[in-house]
């Protein structure tokens, strides 16, 4: 038995939790901090049998991994024509930090 | 030293925490999620000396274990006499999911 | 890799988190409980490379360790002159409970 502790972006959290639960994983979501720190992050605990660990990690990576997105520039800049035009910029979104811990005992009561 | 991480029903959480603390265990309650998931659950962390582990697990099992209760049916149904009568139904309440982790170092500062 | 789980006083938490982050540690603050229990405590998770463990523990001890402070008595008492005078009392503040867990796998995605 392993315990996965995963810290993901809030915007990915609902999708990764729904996907894990659909695949039969049991997920406990810990409340995010209200403070200045790590606003926008969600911490999840997932208990898994050893043979299901890789499946859970694959789901987390698939949904949450850091990726680039094209966004429109937040404020338009002057183009060479002298007109203000928006332009595409690349931003990095998502990302997950994952710890796997050994579980010494596991009990359902 | 071990760390117990126990996920219990909210309705059992005050009683199990009070019982553990009366017996000298140190309990940290993690905030439950505000979201759609696991509403009604409380997650607790309990650090215990190895020789007190079984005592803590026995308290959690005793207070929180899944059990059947008789409840009155939520909406009355028509009996054979044609009158609406409430009837008893059996529901399962409580339950706990418990992980025990090995602690590599423990410090009180 | 190790995971530090540290329970500190709220009044020390901002300072210890800021100090840890300035030194390059990655800290996740878990929401404190809203309940009767452990009001005033903050739980933090810190993932550290083995060789940086002692540095993190030293920061936590330095900022959070239990210490005595001189406070003014909350209500004045009668001095030998018969007048009510405040007097200094020694109170204990701070303190931290720290668990170090072994991390089986660590992934940044
Ligand atoms: Ni195992
Ligand atoms: Ni031990
Ligand atoms: Ni290691």
From TrEMBL, chains A, B, C:
Keywords from the named record: Receptor
InterPro entries in the record: CdAMP_rec, N-reg_PII-like_a/b, N-reg_PII/ATP_PRibTrfase_C
Domain of life: Bacteria
Protein name, as recorded: Cyclic-di-AMP receptor
Species of the source: Luoshenia tenuis
């Amino acid at each position: 038995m392993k315990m996965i502790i995963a810290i993901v972006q809030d915007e990915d959290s609902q999708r990764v939790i729904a996907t894990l639960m659909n695949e039969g994983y049991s997920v406990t979501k810990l409340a995010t901090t209200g403070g200045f720190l790590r606003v926008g992050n969600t911490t999840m605990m997932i208990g898994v049998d050893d043979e299901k660990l890789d499946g859970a990690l694959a789901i987390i990576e698939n949904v949450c991994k850091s990726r680039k997105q094209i966004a429109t520039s937040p404020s338009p800049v002057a183009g060479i024509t002298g007109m203000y035009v928006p332009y595409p910029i690349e931003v990095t979104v998502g990302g997950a930090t994952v710890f796997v811990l050994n579980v010494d005992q596991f009990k359902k009561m």
